[in-house]
Amino acid sequence: MPIPAAVALGEVPADDAGAGSGVVNTAIQLGTALGIAVVGVIFFSPAGGGFGAATATTLWCNAAFFCAAALASPLLPGHRVREPGQAVL
């Protein structure tokens, strides 16, 4: 997760780096928990068909989520060029 964290913390002033890091870590933990919950809801949905069908449905949904994230990744902010002498976070 270093790239999303670096993007999120890129504009945070050095004095607030600790608070910014806490917010990023909280967002990562929340996203992980929500992702697991969504996958669990899809897996245990009353679609019927047993374990094999539930596994296949869940894997296809995960593949779709991955593709959507990959297609949305160019929308992330671009790389900033550091000024000489600027601190690296």
Number-wise, the strands total: 0
Distance between the termini: 15 Å
Uncertain regions spanning at least 5 consecutive residues: none
H/E series, N to C?
Answer: HHH
How does the helix and strand content classify structurally?
mainly alpha
Helix content: 55-70%
Radius of gyration: 18 Å
Total helices: the number is 3
Number of domains: 1
Main sheet makeup: none
Taken as a percent bin, the fraction of beta residues is under 5%
Keywords: Membrane, Transmembrane, Transmembrane helix
Transmembrane segments: 26-44, 51-72
InterPro entries: MFS_trans_sf
Protein name: MFS transporter
Secondary structure layout plus pairing:
Blueprint lengths: L1 H8 L7 H27 L6 H23 L17
Commentary on this structure:
Helix content is 65%, strand content 0%. The protein is built from 3 helices and no strands. α2 (17-43) runs antiparallel to α3. The mean pLDDT is 83. This is MFS transporter.
Provide a compact summary of the structure.
With 89 residues, the protein is mainly alpha-helical. It has three helices and no strands.
Which structural traits does this protein have?
transmembrane, mainly alpha, 65% helix, MFS transporter, 89 residues
